[in-house]
Each structure stands twice: as C-alpha cells, then as structure tokens.
Amino acid sequence: MLTLILIGLLGGLITAVSPCILPVLPVVFLAGGPGNESPPLTATGRKRPTGPESAGGLIVETPPEATPGPSRNRRPYAVVAGLVLSFSFFTLLGVTIISALGLPQDILRYIGLSLLVLIGLGLIFPPIERLLEKPFARIPQRQVNKEGSAFVLGLGLGLLYVPCAGPVLAAITVAGARGQINADIVALTLSFAVGTAIPLLVFALAGRRVAERVAAFRTRARKLRIAAGLLMIVLAFALAFDATTALQKALPNYTAAAQKKVEDNDTARQKLSGLYNESNKDLASCEDGVNELRSCGPAPQLANIAKWLNTPGGAPVDLASLRGKVVLIDFWTYSCINCQRSLAHIEAWDRAYRDKGLTVIGVHSPEFAFEKDTGNVADQARKLGVTYPVALDNDLDTWNNYRNRFWPAKYLIDARGTVRYFTFGEGRYAQTEKLIRDLLKQADPTIELPPVTGQTNDDLTEDRTPETYLSTSRIRGYTGTPELTKDKATTYAFPIAGVPLGRLSLAGTWTTGYEHFTAGPDARLAFTYRAKNSSLVLAGEGTVTILVDGKETKTLQVHGAPTLYRLTDDDTARQAGLELRFTPGLQAFAFTFG
According to the 3-state scheme, what is the secondary structure of 101-136? Predict the structure, then answer.
C-alpha cells in the first residue's frame, strides 16, 4: 500500500500544476485574503479598533465584543480542505449516491456552480455571506466559524475541480463508478487528493501573503471584495458554458512527460491495474509478450458475464471444467479494427487446434454503450466468422480480474489452470502460436500437431495515425472553428490553411457528444492521416461520400446499428487527405487505421 500511496501523492502533485487546474487558481489565490497581523481596516477603509473578522477571503465588520484578540488567518487552509474533502468524497461515492437517489448525472456540477455563485454574491453583498456562515456559528472553536464561507467555497470548487485524467485518476474514477471501493482505493484517493492540495495550498498562502504586504489590499478592501465576487461569478458561468476549455487547449501539456514517468511505469501499471480484485495479484509477476512460458498465477474466473454466445443453449463456460485443456482467452470488442485484424489469426488457431485440446474463449469487453447490446455483438460475431464461445463482459468485471488494459489482449492458460503467457495489442502471432503448441505438447506429450497455420504478423504501417474517437472528451487533434460544443447543434468550418497530418476538422452542422458525433445539414469531416487503410464506425440510415485528396472515390450506404465501414484501402502506406460528406442523421463513432 505504501507504493500505491506514493504513486497517488506524486500523481497528485503533478496534476496540481497541470494546465487543467488553471480555472480554479485565481479563486484559490484570492481565497487567502488579507491576514490579521497588521492593523486591519473596515470595508470603508477606516482602521478598526479591535480584532477583525473576515471570511471567504476578505474583511467584514465585527463588533468589538466578538473579537477578544487577534487571530491567525486560516482561510487558505479552509478553502483547500473543502476542495480536497468534496473532490475525494464525490469522486468515490458521487455515482453511487446519484444512482441511489435517482438524481440527474450533472447534479453535482450544478451544485458546485451554485455554490460558486453564492460565494461571489456573498463577497458583494455581506448579508448573503453571513447567511452562508450561519451553519458554522454553532461550532465552539473561535476561529472555525470565521472561515465558514471559505470552507463552503472549497466544497464548491471540489465539485468543479476537473484535473487532467491520468492513470491514477482513471483508476479512482472507475472504482467509484463501479462501487468497488476498498482500502487501497481509499488510500490512493486520499494520497492523490493530498498531492493536489499541497501546490494549491502554497498558491493560497501566497495570495494571503500578497494581501498582507500590498497596501492596496488593505486600503481598498471593499472594492477588492466586489472584484473577487465578480470573478467567482464569471468563473461559474465560464465553467457552465465550457469557456475555459479553449485556454486549457491552447497551452501545451507541460506535465505529460512527468505524469507518464510517474503513473505509467511498470510498477505503477501493476499496482493500478490490480486494485479491484486480489485474486489476480499473481499476474503482476509476468510481463507482456515475453517469448517464453512463465507461471503467472491461477487464471481468474470469467465473472459477471451478461450472456454467452456460441455455446449450447447459451450455457456458461466454467474454466474449472476445462482442466486438461489449453485455453486461449481473447479480450476484444467488435468495432475495434485492431481486434478484427487479430481475429483472423485466432480463428485459424481455433480451426487447427480445437481437436488437439485448445479451447478459445472470446471475452467481449465493450468500449461503447452500443457494444453492450447482445444483438449487435451476435450479428457482428457472425459476420466476422467467430464460432468459438464469446462471453459478454458488459460490466468489465472479467477485464478487471485479468488486469487487462488493451484491445485486443490474449492470455494463455495451461492444462492445470495457470496463466502462462499474455500479450497486448496486435502482433506476436507466430510467437503466440509456438507457445500454444508448446502448451498442447506439455498437456499430452504424445499428441501429433498439424503444421503451423502460417499466420504471421500483419504488415502494419509504421507511424500510422492512431485510433481516433469522435467524442468530446476523448478526441485528439481537433482543429477548426469554433471549439467543439457538447450536445448542441453547431455550425463548424474547416481551417483556411488546411488540415495538418493527424488532425481532424468539421464543417457544416454537427451535434458532438460524449460517445459519437451526429451529422446535420451539409455535415462534412476532414482528416489527414497516414496509413494503408482507414475505417470508421457508423450508424443510422444514409450515405457517406468519400473524397481522397479532393477526388471522389466512392459512396457508402450506411444502414442500421453501429458497424465498422472501410473508407480507403491502398497497397502501401501513404499520407492522404480524407473528406467525408454525410447525410443528416448519421452517427460517427471512431476512426481506425491500418
């Protein structure tokens, strides 16, 4: 657990200085407010004869009898404590609470925005601030009730705090969403929160120090209160309408290298991928793709499978019943082109070695919501020629049991039920087949195996354009005007200078969402890519006209549920400018390249 805490702490420190937290920094800085060591002033600028009382970052009047002596300004600690508390609590339990109460998914965000507006109004109108501090008046500690609105401000910021998502935050978020909270997850969350709090606290203390030393903060207290209140209200509206995204995108991700070094090294990957189930901890003793058989611990169970395909009567397959056989488990999802390319090899192995003691099980772990639909999976499995058993792992329980992180991924289990090898991604086909043959011979030394299937590595294009999701939260390389507007029909325009390599742009009317983009009138999409071929997952009823380097090549007829459509197919890799023209209503999900 100590290693996990260290990973969380370092990950939090890096996150707290990343571009993603810039929107909250001005508020954190102003939250420090002026200290109490120098003679304080009232809101009108006159020296106060007795000790001051202030909250939310700036001074308000206090009767002399209420202040027996000077006190230390603890507002920076209050606002950061509130932020850390609400961020940690609602990241872990927010989904569970919302689901249990049947509340809208965005309710926490709206609460955070409302609190930010209320604090801003409180700085402008003192009666509102006193109302916010009233719940803290019953607390006996003399100083605590003076920092009430600062703490409330922190609670609101914690609900709006959206740091850059790295492996640590992803692990915390997934655990919270799935309700899989254990001691390790809590320790990781708290250490991450403390890591993010340290730089923020330094920033808030710096704001307090500036307020104490700069005369303008003491002589213009009332004006500064109003300015701070207006800033908070403006920030609330900017966050509500996603106006801060443009600033964050414009800045380089200067913490990416450090984040990868801390959160994506071998030790971190093993720790973070094994948070959900102790039964899989021995998998950490093996490495991806090693060209030899190793003992990687007992094979975890195929857990919480929604449905089985290609088994008699849909009966489940129990790994324990397969003792004496060699088992190949393939994690895949039907719209993934990398998985589709891999399936040809797996199907060949299934045909060649099924009668020799090999059992192939496909674990279908969906990326998108539409891939949870049994009818969609069954239809696509049939089209792709998959005849071996397929387990629908809709809740990703089996995915987590195997500490998996990739589509596709293959795990070899020997006749005694021990995982002996795994490989992530495409490739290593000849190596994997050799190890299958070795395990079959270990299970039965007298067996006569057929010739190798001849399935070797595909001629993958080097430096090919990576898979690209049409999702407002997952898209990378977008260029054009305006910025993407979530869930609202918007008219876009291609950049005048053209679309650079690896970048994507929109024109015409589109409604962009979390899972797919929906075409409107005159919807067009441009993408400059490098690969031998390109494909796109599409759904709906209509046509897509394809232009390559300005020349029309073909028109696709799109029909029904989301399916992968081949756009271009060349003999050799090349750089090409792709333009697609959509009929209204079509949905586009993800590009893949080969």
Answer: HCCCCCHHHHHHHHHHHHHHHHHHCHHHHHHHHHHH
CA 413, 277, 299: angle at the middle one, nearest 5? 10
At position 449, the amino acid (one-letter code) is L
Torsion of CA 278, 334, 406, 346, to 10 degrees: 90
- For residue range 480-512, list pLDDT tens digits in order: 889 888 889 999 999 988 888 888 999 999 999
Q: How many helices (H) and strands (E) does the chain have?
A: 17, 15
Separation CA 119–CA 159 (nearest Å): 14
Among 192, 134, 209, residue whose Cα is nearest residue 18: 192
Share of the chain above pLDDT 70, in %: 72
- What pLDDT digit, counting tens, does each position of 44-100 carry? 334 444 433 443 444 344 444 444 444 566 778 887 888 888 878 877 777 567 667
Bridge-based pairing state of the strands 358-364 and 326-332: parallel
Cα gap 299→302, rounded to integer Å:
9
Identity of residue 323: R
How many residues are listed for the chain in this entry? Answer: 594
Contact 271, 371 (CB under 8 A): no
Instruction: Report the DSSP pairing between strands 358-364 and 390-392.
Output: parallel
Q: Which of residues 478 and 462 earns the better pLDDT score?
A: 478
Q: Is the pLDDT at 210 greater than 60, yes or no?
A: yes
Whole-angstrom distance, CA of residue 171 vs CA of residue 142: 40
